[in-house]
Amino acid sequence: MLTKILLIEQNEQERQWLTGTLAVAQLGHQLTAVDKIILKSETLLSDINLLIVAEEQFINIAKRLKHLFTLQETPFPILVLTKNFSVFNYDNYLALTLDSFPKQSITPQILNHIILSLHRDFEKNNLLKQLAHFDELTNATNRHLFNDRLKQALFRAKRFKEPISLLYFDLDKFKDVNDKYGHEVGDKLLQVFVKTVKQQVRESDTIARMGGDEFALLLPKTNESSAIEIAKNIIRELAKPKQLLKNKIFIQTSIGIAAFSGCESPTVLTSKNMLKAADNAVYQAKATGRNRYMVFSSKN
Q1: CA distance 292 to 300
Q2: What are the backbone dihedrals phi and psi of residue 49, each rounded to the nearest 5 degrees, phi first?
Q3: Rounded Cα–Cα distance for residues 38 and 31 (Å)
Q4: Are 252 and 171 in contact (CB under 8 A)?
């Protein structure tokens, strides 16, 4: 197993000692050792699969991680090196996969064991999160996880003045499909719809099943014109006949688009306002003929 480790330790002597201990542990790792980390270090953090940090720096690191990732999705486990065997307080970090161990009691063998155990726990936790936060039928995120990601994306949009867009989908005449072909075909339609949407967007975008035949697509760092192009592409791809079991069916959807520049006031740039704007837009799309998109932006 190739483990890419980020070690954060302010004390130069202890940093060198820990670097040597990790080398002796022979985990086949790639190690980056630094004395501190800055808030914008997304590239560095996204390219590791283990973080080792001294306890006195951990609280500050945890706060910074919260700005870069949702805590439910921090993409690596964390080993906190403490000063002694006193019990580490996990209460505020239950969403993280982490372990703690006294720094001065570390040996290569112990370090090897802890790291392997952390990765096993991390894989188990990811499986549990998958079951808790994703729709079982379509594998789209559920409403709870979507709201969390939207909150984090809006935080970034306001902090860095970045555009953000939201597409809301209401599948047209979905009930008719269920009534005519049966729920098995209806379920297949929902799965194909999500798969089609995912093919038109980035991995960093989030498609969520909000309930029944309603879905939302979160597009961070995406302005109105780009969101419109994505909506057009989705409608065009859905217009191609889909083989759903033994039936060829055209999938149609009404789309509401909410687009914000990131420069709006904090009272305007909220999850509630964004969802309400997209919902109003999808209502207008349905009222004016279905299988089309309508835009609601903060400029209106």
Answers
A1: 19
A2: -130, 20
A3: 18
A4: yes
Kindly state the average pLDDT of the residues 3-16: 89
| Euclidean distance between the first and the last CA atom of the chain, given in angstroms as a whole number | 53
Average pLDDT over residues 42-67: 79
Full-model pTM: 0.66
Task: Give, for 208, the enclosing helix (H) or strand (E).
Answer: strand 206-211
d(CA 184, CA 191): 11
Tokens of 21: 């201990």
Q: Does the active-site annotation cover 135?
A: no
Q: Given this model, what pLDDT does residue 67 score?
A: 66
Q: What is the DSSP letter of 167?
A: E
Which tens digit of pLDDT belongs to each residue from 190-212?
999 999 999 999 988 999 999 99
Q: Is the separation of the CB atoms in 158 and 266 below 8 Å?
A: yes
Mean pLDDT value across residues 254-262: 95
Can you say whether the dihedral through the CA atoms of 221, 223, 225, 230 is positive or negative? positive
Helix (H) or strand (E) segment spanning residue 187? helix 183-199
Quick check: 181 and 114 in contact, CB under 8 A? no
Of the candidates 173, 274, 276, which has an alpha carbon nearest to the alpha carbon of residue 224? 274
CA atoms of 90 and 165, how far apart (whole Å): 35
Residue 44, phi then psi, degrees to nearest 5: -60, -45
| Contact criterion met (CB below 8 Å) for 259 and 231 | no
What pLDDT was estimated at residue 300? 44
| Residue 125 contacts residue 106 (beta carbons within 8 Å) | no
Q: What is the pLDDT of residue 46?
A: 67
The pLDDT of residue 61 is: 81
Phi, psi of 100 (to 5 degrees): -135, 155
- Residues 277 and 52: their CA atoms lie apart, in Å, by 43
Q: What is the mean pLDDT of the chain?
A: 88
